[in-house]
Amino acid sequence: MTPYEKQIKSTEDTIDAEFWKNPCGVEVEFDQLKFLYLPDHVSAFIASQIARQVYRYQIENISTKEQITHAVMITMGGLLPGVLLHDHLAWTLNKNISPIKFGMMGVKYYAGPGEPLEKPEIVHALSMDIENQVVSVVEDLVDLGGTARFVAQYLVDEHRARKIILIAPFLKTTEVMNEMLVIYYGSVPKDTWIITPREKVETLIKRVPHWRDHGATMKVCEANLLKIGYPKYLLDIYLRPTYERG
């Protein structure tokens, strides 16, 4: 069994923290991308480790008054890590650290795997007042950095945020770290598509037709999905209708 297979099939008590800091996706037939399947319990583990980093930042900035007061979850990707972080950060046992208030804003930057739009689009307005606040922007992944830059500038210019800190489980580029503080857990290569728990079906129904149109049989598509780490129940529901869709 490969390290990837071991981690996809791991339990909460057998997660390899080092593997997920620089995880390697798997190659499948009829695709140039590699795929990294992120199990639910691994997402929860990574959120706990990011929360520890945020807590250290809050402790270090008690005297500077630069503590994070608000967190903006960027939909859709930032909702899952944001909700998991909320469980750790929306209250505190330290009287010197205020709980972080969570809100959201909708921004779209991708049409599908590896298909960025020309520029980000705001699809849901910011849900809270952040004027003169230190704000964390929560995403699930920093790929090209375009969304992070766009949101940071927008929150400063249009909503008068005092400072922006980016929070994301994974980075594909470190360039954005030259422009703002980034709290993250791991890094992945640019050719790797991360399948988070909130986009298992979405990725399947977008990628299976791509494989089919490049010559893959339904059997090959099934093998690809199983290799990536998909559970059989999702294949039973979605594979055939997706493959046969015109």
Overview of this protein structure:
With 246 residues, this protein is of the alpha/beta class. The protein has 2 domains: 41-187, Rossmann fold, CATH 3.40.50; 199-244. The chain has helices at 3-8, 40-60, 79-89, 146-159, 200-213, 218-228, 232-244, and strands at residues 26-27, 34-37, 70-75, 101-112, 115-124, 134-138, 141-142, 163-171, 181-187, 192-195. Helix 5 (200-213) crosses helix 7 and helix 6 (218-228) runs antiparallel to helix 7. The longest helix has 21 residues, at 40-60. The chain starts with a helix and ends with a helix.
Percent range for β-strand residues:
15-25%
Radius of gyration: 19 Å
**Beta strands, count:** 10
Q: Classify the helix fraction into a percent range.
A: 25-40%
Question: What is the CATH topology descriptor of the largest domain?
Answer: Rossmann fold
Q: Counting H and I runs of at least 4 residues, what is the number of helices? A: 7
Ends: how far apart? 37 Å
**Mean model confidence by pLDDT:** 94
The dominant shape is globular
- Poorly predicted regions: none
Largest sheet, in brief, is:
7 strands, mixed
Q: What is the class of the largest domain in the CATH system?
A: Alpha Beta
Oligomeric state of shown chains: single chain
CATH arch. level architecture of the largest domain? 3-Layer(aba) Sandwich
Domain module count: 2
Order of helices and strands: HEEHEHEEEEHEEEHHH
Find the structural class using helix and strand composition. alpha/beta
Give a nutshell description of this structure.
This protein has 246 residues and is α/β, with parallel strands linked by helices. Helices cover 37% and strands 25% of the residues.
